[in-house]
Design brief:
Length: about 350
């Protein structure tokens, strides 16, 4: 039987995965306060639908950074897809392309970007980058990504150091099993060969100057992933980036960052419609997407659900995730009286008296 919801799919994935791999995917940093907060925030915010608006079947197609997409749902970058399923990132890319959805390939993918592009066969790929202190290596990787046909660079800025994931420490999960590695981290060797994969470096020295450097190094649109402070959103505007992805890394980096949904309104205010805003963290239902759009996001990204689909059924599982969310979003918009994203606004959101009181006291 096919899972009826993404939550059922997670349970199915958990049955299939090694416990250590499940924890690696499911877990967050420290006490996992942020991990829980992301999902809980959606449950706490109510929707108040409009009726009798006669808008017809909701239209979900949209354009993000010049890329047409069948729905405002992007696949967030997640590492190690071959740990979830032997077909790994190729399966994810095929499912995304068939659904007309954008896939963001992780720099830590266990399949090389060129092979993912081949599997995607004309689908839209974005590439996620951890800026490496070795700028020569970073630049060579950017050339690789451009040559593979990726349409945007998603630069993750929330990881000056690696978050402490206690589930992995407890499980002794320190390395990928033999035969798997971060294929994009293999520098070019002589005669078209590739050397051994380098570890991904995290650097506390990264600054806005590196974003300026990146801006000059590529003509690809730049998305900054991991912004949560409105002051940084303003900096992003000044530095000429093309979009921001409001993200707390699915609760895997700094613990106790509030839910991304709660952080979105001040960022949307700072951006003032001048850049597209994406949001990730805890999206599990179509109604979650309506809430994110109502608070100012242009699109959302999904991380773990894709891994659950992949673990449960490979390409078909990822296709099921995308189709489940697409149809849930369509139904939620119809039930809210919305015919397109432009009908989705804050008037649909219920702010309880209790919450209003808390805010003013
Ligand atoms: C197993 C796993 C691996 C991830 N790998 C990356 C990564 O390589 N690069 C990155 O920028 N974010 C990575 N993320 C964070 C996701 O891009 C995204 O921000 C987060 O998963 C969104 O929350 P969700 O899982 O609740 O949808 C990873 C998340 C998970 C769960
Ligand atoms: C290989 C890691 C850096 C991937 C990541 O960002 C994560 O696990 O959250």
């Amino acid at each position: 039987m096919k899972a009826l919801s993404l939550r059922e799919l997670e349970a199915e994935a958990q049955r299939r995965l090694e416990p250590g791999a499940y924890d690696l995917f499911a877990g967050g940093a420290d006490d996992e306060v942020t991990l829980r907060a992301n999902e809980n925030a959606f449950a706490r915010l109510g929707l108040v639908p409009r009726v009798l608006r006669g808008r017809g079947r909701p239209q979900l197609e949209t354009t993000l950074l010049g890329c047409r997409t069948s729905m405002p749902i992007v696949i967030a970058p997640t590492a190690f897809h071959r740990l979830a399923h032997p077909d790994g990132e190729r399966a994810t890319a095929r499912a995304a392309a068939a659904a007309g959805a954008i896939m963001t390939v992780s720099m830590a993918s266990t399949t090389a970007i060129e092979e993912i592009a081949e599997a995607s066969a004309g689908g839209t790929l974005w590439f996620q980058l951890y800026l490496q202190p070795d700028l020569g290596f970073t630049e060579a990787l950017i050339r690789r990504v451009e040559a593979a046909g990726c349409k945007a660079l998603v630069v993750t800025v929330d990881s000056p150091v690696f978050g402490r994931r206690e589930r992995d420490l407890r499980n002794g999960f320190t390395d990928l099993p033999s035969g798997l590695c971060c294929e994009n981290m293999r520098p070019a060797g002589p005669g078209g060969t590739r050397g051994p994969a380098r570890p991904i470096a995290f650097s506390e020295a990264l600054s806005w100057e590196h974003i300026d450097w990146l801006r000059k190094s590529t003509s690809l649109p730049l998305v900054l992933k991991g912004l949560v402070h409105p002051a940084d959103a303003k900096m992003a505007l000044e530095r000429g980036v093309d979009a921001v992805l409001v993200s707390n890394h699915g609760g895997r980096q700094l613990d106790t960052i509030p839910a991304t949904l709660e952080l979105l309104p001040p960022i949307a205010e700072a951006i003032g419609g001048r850049l597209p805003i994406l949001l990730d963290g805890g999206i599990r239902r179509g109604t979650d997407i309506v809430k994110a759009l109502a608070l100012g996001a242009n699109a959302v990204a999904i991380g773990r659900p894709v891994l659950w689909g992949l673990a449960a059924e490979g390409e078909a599982g990822v296709a099921h995730v995308l189709e489940t969310l697409r149809s849930e979003l369509e139904r939620a918009m119809a039930l809210c009286g919305c015919g397109s994203a432009s009908d989705v606004g804050p008037e649909l959101l219920h702010v309880s008296r209790w919450e209003k009181q808390c805010r003013t006291s």
